Amino acid sequence: MFKVRYKGSPRVQEVPLDGQTLSPALAAEVDKVWSEAQEEQGNGLSNGSIFSVTDIVGSLVRGRFVEYKHFVAVRRRPDLFAALQVRPLAVTGLSRCDGGIILGCRSDRVTQDQGLWEFVPSGGVDRSSRRADGFIDVARQIERELREETGLDPSLIANVSLRYVIEDSSSHVFDIVADVALQVSAERAMSALNQASQDEYESFKVLDADGRRLFFERSQERLAPLSRYIAEDLEFPAAV
């Protein structure tokens, strides 16, 4: 179930670790789940760090960086959430070019929402966006995701405006949703999108107002859950 936890432009801050470490038994259980996931997905799964939310106080989202394998462990073994308390923070961009808004269809090589359409770019917050003062540069994370997922150069971004912090209570994932204004025509955008790597998305669409209305009316079941929530409840309620 999705819920808007903050409406506006949030700040994101890394807070110090509380000094607690995983017990040997819990660490062994996490490693076991991680090994099973690696065996299933081969070399496509690698460990790294993701930002995990600890709390939200007003406009301030606080958290810490944890190993990605902890998130995988919780996703595959929900009973481990009570001990690990992993609440990943991600970003979702509503990327608008001169001809409309961009959606991508997730490829069969990703681990979640395969074959579903979503707003792009979309991805987790990692250490590359951490500033020296401990705050996270969310706009920088969106710029990196845009380049990596769509092939569009961040220099095309006229403005990034943070809009919401959304919580998915079923998966414990938080998303910062932002408007991403692009200075590029639909034709030029599609030209770049068609040349993008297909690791994340197998295809893209640029939908104007009429196309968006028809697509959302006819293809609601083909939208990824978060994008469906954004479209129906927050951004385009008259179109669905």
What does this structure look like?
By secondary structure, this protein is α+β, with helices and mostly antiparallel strands. The chain has two domains: 2-84, no CATH class; 89-239, Nucleoside Triphosphate Pyrophosphohydrolase. It contains seven helices and eleven strands. The chain has helices spanning 24-41, 68-76, 81-84, 138-150, 186-194, 209-218, 225-235, and strands at residues 2-7, 11-14, 49-57, 60-67, 89-97, 100-106, 117-119, 122-124, 157-168, 173-182, 201-207. The strands form two sheets. Strands 1, 5, 6, 7, 8, 9, 10 and 11 form an eight-stranded mixed β-sheet that branches. A hairpin with a 2-residue loop joins strand 3 (49-57) and strand 4. The protein starts with a strand and ends in a 5-residue tail after the last helix. The relative contact order is 0.18. The model has no long low-confidence stretch (mean pLDDT 91).
Overview in brief:
With 240 residues, the chain is an alpha+beta fold. The protein has helices at 24-41, 68-76, 81-84, 138-150, 186-194, 209-218, 225-235; strands spanning 2-7, 11-14, 49-57, 60-67, 89-97, 100-106, 117-119, 122-124, 157-168, 173-182, 201-207.
Distance between the termini: 19 Å
> Could you give the order of the helices and strands?
EEHEEHHEEEEHEEHEHH
How many domains in all? 2
Mean pLDDT over all positions = 91
Major sheet, described briefly? 8 strands, mixed
Low-confidence stretches: none
**Main structural class:** alpha+beta
Shape: globular
Give me the CATH superfamily of the largest domain: Nucleoside Triphosphate Pyrophosphohydrolase
Strand tally: 11
CATH hierarchy class name of the largest domain: Alpha Beta
How much helical structure, as a percent, in the residues? 25-40%
Helical stretch count?
Answer: 7
